[in-house]
Amino acid sequence: MTDNANTPITVIGLGLMGQALAGAFLKAGHPTTVWNRTAAKAGSLVASGARLAPTVGDALAAGGLTVVCLTDYPAVRDLLGDAGLEGTTLVNLTSGDSAQARETAAWAEKLGARYLDGAIMAIPSSIGTEEAVILLSGPEPDFDLGALGTISHLGEDHGLAALYDVAGLTMMWSVLNAWLQGTAMLRTAGVDAATYATFAQQIAVGVAGWLPGYAEQVDQGSFPAEVSALETDVRAMAHMVEESEALGVNAELPKLIKAMADRAIAAGHGGEQYPVLIREFERAGE
Ligand code: FVH
Question: What pTM was computed for the model?
Fold first, then answer.
């Protein structure tokens, strides 16, 4: 593994995230070449020691390792298709889905590049700290991106980083929606969001603690009701729907949660534990 701050790195794409990435490489001492469609965005990086490449081809030729971070995958392919990828190592940190990642890997490899796909699970201000988690998938990296944060290589399948990314986003927005639902209910009784947030945080931490045990049930395909059966849970879900409707707050989320449990019970799983719902999640909705 190339593990020193002397490794020259090129960053293509200097939006909010690309600027943070290039800034972190510079801070760690990497000779850093940058390129952006709107060259003016390179101003502060150049002032901090980055070299602004005149063309995207020049940027790719500047070093063995290129990090690209654009709006989306089509922009990456439009930009780099004719720019000369032969012999480069390309790390694409643009967000997308797993099919785009695998297709782009095949495309880049056909053009002679070594390709790793990545997902940034962080905001620009955290780049360069250990809180910034960056997932990589594709061939085992022979370079070190530690200047950016905590790097995790997930495996050879180029689609894995994007899959973890969307799985993580699902977790994030589901937790936030659940919190907002409860907040809407409690605000009808004059409880402010901050008061409920402290309580909600405790619940979220408690539920997170159930995950390893529940994951074991999913992996084993066996769902004994050790704590509570689904037919017991569904009665509490009915309260959630009825309470929301009575209070005049949005009941879509409670109804969705209950509808999935109702289907599992109708399929004969009422005596089993909550993770049996994996079967509802694994099939496409009607
Ligand atoms: N910002 C964030 O918090 C997140 C966190 C997690 C992951 N993302 C992903 O990172 C990608 C870039 O996001 P960004 O925040 O840097 O986005 P922008 O500030 O809008 O910058 C976009 C850059 O892409 C360039 N660009 C777009 N289309 C083209 C094209 N056809 N040819 C060349 N360059 C293109 C754009 O150039 P310019 O407008 O400055 O000339 C910017 O450099 C994204 O996938 C997030 O989901 C960020």
Answer: 0.92
